[in-house]
Write a structure and sequence with these properties.
171 residues; alpha+beta; three-stranded antiparallel beta sheet; 21% helix
């Protein structure tokens, strides 16, 4: 029968993936999975993917797309500008709210003063499109799973983001 509350059939099993578990994915492999194409958003169709970019240069590290907060600019506008500066106008992203969901504070170790930087993280969802990577700033990009990000991101940044990456957040 139909479950009136959810508008779905009661006799169908609900699919609820556990992102922390590796499991066989034979039934949901895409062309991107078969090619191990980390630049494709069509990989790991049953998992959340997160966009990462590799900074330019020999020592370039993998980071989330970012931008410096300008005077008078909201965090949401800065996040939009960060995607625009990374990919141009070709990628549509929906931002969940106007406030950051997390931040990381880095203090100067040589002084007790409150000098340093704060990195604010905004949660955005990819909607559609594909931009062109800004090759003056970045060498590469990838759509990564939580487990791949853990191997790629600096540990202090991963620890800050881990609750989000595990889906432990509410609005």
């Amino acid at each position: 029968g139909i479950n009136a509350e959810y508008g779905e059939r009661k006799d169908r099993a609900r699919f609820s993936p556990d992102p922390s578990q590796d499991r066989p994915r034979e039934a949901i492999l895409s062309r991107a999975d078969l090619k191990n194409d980390k630049r494709s958003v069509e990989r790991y169709m049953d998992r959340f993917l997160y966009l990462m970019v590799k900074e330019k240069g020999a020592q370039g590290k993998w980071i989330l797309p970012s931008a410096e907060l300008l005077d008078g600019e909201t965090c949401r506008k800065t996040a939009r500008r960060g995607i625009f500066d990374t990919y141009g106008t070709g990628m549509d992203v929906y931002y969940w709210g106007h406030a950051p969901f997390q931040y990381l504070e880095e203090r100067e170790q040589s002084t007790a003063q409150l000098l340093g930087t704060k990195t604010f993280y905004m949660y955005g969802t990819y909607v559609k499109g594909e931009g062109k990577l800004n090759q003056t700033k970045y060498d590469d990009w990838a759509w990564l799973t939580r487990e791949e990000i853990k191997k790629t991101l600096e540990p202090k940044h991963f620890k800050t983001l881990d609750d989000l990456l595990q889906g432990n957040w509410t609005f």
